[in-house]
Automatic annotation (TrEMBL):
Homology family: Belongs to the class-I pyridoxal-phosphate-dependent aminotransferase family.
GO-annotated cellular components: cytosol
PANTHER family hit by this protein: ASPARTATE AMINOTRANSFERASE, ASPARTATE AMINOTRANSFERASE, MITOCHONDRIAL
Taxonomy, superkingdom: Bacteria
Pfam families for the chain: Aminotran_1_2 (PF00155)
UniProt subunit comment: Homodimer.
Any GO BP annotation: L-phenylalanine biosynthetic process from chorismate via phenylpyruvate
First-tier enzyme category under EC: transferase
Cofactor (UniProt): pyridoxal 5'-phosphate
Keywords, ordered alphabetically: Aminotransferase, Pyridoxal phosphate, Transferase
Ranges where the Aminotransferase class I/classII large domain occurs: 27-384
Native organism: Psychromarinibacter sediminicola
Name under which the protein is recorded: Aminotransferase
Length: 394
């Protein structure tokens, strides 16, 4: 009966990964999937994480099941990292998940299981998996204007206009920082206006924060989500440790629910846990236990923060170098906006045809939407990238 299947809709990021691996050209440049790379194209394990892992393995006593919610200490430490004291810990319920992707899925499942829940408003564009996950969970998806490709900036008026049409109990998905794929983040003023609109219309914010520490810094990158958490009565948050702890394949994330302790957040957490149980049962332990140990040790925490800051500085340096390269290669200021973007990505505003041409002619690999992984740029490749882009926009 297996012949009966139709191929699932392709995931362009995963397709690109395969195309890159299969391409025989030795000079090929991978600016696709969202993985941080050093100047020599590697994604090493962070030293503080390696040290925490060693300690954890030494002290690990058992590999027996921990429980559906995973490591409670880990979840609490991530709550502090993301929310600090924006809301009282009494008002937050969280669980460990299989990376940020599963956090999004379990929260979507939890929301879809609520009869009161309306549609989910998702920014256009957004992470490639937000819409498929929301639909798979059974939510009705509506998109809202977010980005103006002509300017490389947020279309904030368009965003407020669209969200002004949302109805009470609709969900609004927001990227906590380092918007994927555009790189264009809300200013604090814009977060404030968004929070006011959400509160006024009785919407439920769903913040996906997967790149904390890659934009302006750990605290600065959480300012928007903290402001929102302090303004609205209820919200949900998905977090990922893939990027800021570099534990991609260990699959470490959390899902959090914020609300009044008397207003059903424990029930909501039960639904979240049961969504995990029917999907994968228990989350994996190693990555979360390692991060919990790291964050409980002030020396390791400070070492991790310095490494993260170095990564952030490298991205900023890459942004500056890319902006300069593109300015001289194209003889225009068209791409200057990459300087002001945050985090790993920028959406360059190139068409799918131009991206294909770039891949064919210059062996530069990017997803068809024109999202560039700035964190993967190697200085030695700048010239090829600049000339390649100049050639395709000519
Ligand atoms: C990305 O957007 O490239 C990453 O978040 C990896 C993924 O799962 O798509």
């Amino acid at each position: 009966m297996f012949e009966n299947y139709k191929s699932p809709a392709p995931d362009v990021i995963l397709e690109l990964m395969q195309q890159f691996r299969a391409d025989p050209r030795p000079e090929k440049i991978d600016l696709g999937i969202g993985v941080y790379k050093t100047g020599d194209g590697k994604t090493p394990v962070m030293q503080a994480v390696k040290d925490a892992e060693r300690q954890y393995i030494e002290q690990e006593q058992t590999k027996a099941y921990l429980g559906l919610a995973g490591d409670a200490d880990f979840v609490d430490r991530i709550r502090t990292l993301v929310l600090d004291d924006a809301v009282s810990p009494d008002c937050v319920r969280g669980i460990q998940t299989v990376g940020g992707g599963a956090a999004v899925r379990l929260l979507a499942d939890m929301l879809a299981a609520n009869d009161k829940c309306g549609r989910i408003w998702i920014p256009s564009p957004t992470w490639i998996n937000h819409v498929p996950i929301s639909k798979a969970a059974g939510l009705e998806v509506v998109t809202y204007t977010y980005f103006d490709p002509a300017t490389g900036q947020i279309d904030f008026d368009g965003m407020l206009d669209d969200l002004g049409k949302a109805e009470a109990n609709d969900i609004v998905l927001l990227h906590g920082c380092c918007h994927n794929p555009t790189g264009a983040d809300l200013t604090l003023e814009q977060w404030r206006a968004t929070a006011a609109l959400i509160a006024e219309r009785g919407l439920l914010p769903f913040v996906d924060i997967a790149y904390q520490g890659f934009g302006d810094g750990l605290e600065e990158d959480a300012a928007g989500v903290r402001l929102l958490a302090g303004t609205v009565p209820e919200m949900v948050i998905s977090t990922s440790c893939s990027k800021n702890f570099g534990v991609y394949r260990d699959r470490v994330g959390t899902a959090m629910i914020i609300g009044d302790p008397g207003a059903g957040i424990d029930k909501a957490r039960e639904v979240l846990l049961s969504a995990g149980r029917v999907n994968y049962s228990f989350p994996p332990n190693h990555g979360a236990a390692t991060i919990s140990l790291l964050l409980s040790d002030p020396t390791l925490t400070s070492a991790w923060k310095s490494e993260l800051d170095e990564m952030r500085q490298r991205i900023l340096g890459n942004r500056e170098a890319l902006a300069q390269t593109l300015r001289s290669a194209t003889n225009s200021d068209r791409f200057d906006f990459v300087r002001g973007h945050k985090g790993m990505f920028s959406l360059l505003g190139l068409s799918a045809e131009q991206i294909t041409q770039l891949r064919n002619e210059a062996a530069v690999f990017m997803p068809p939407d024109g999202r560039m992984n700035i964190a993967a740029i190697n200085e030695a490749d700048l010239d090829v990238i600049g000339k390649g882009i100049a050639a395709v926009i000519r």
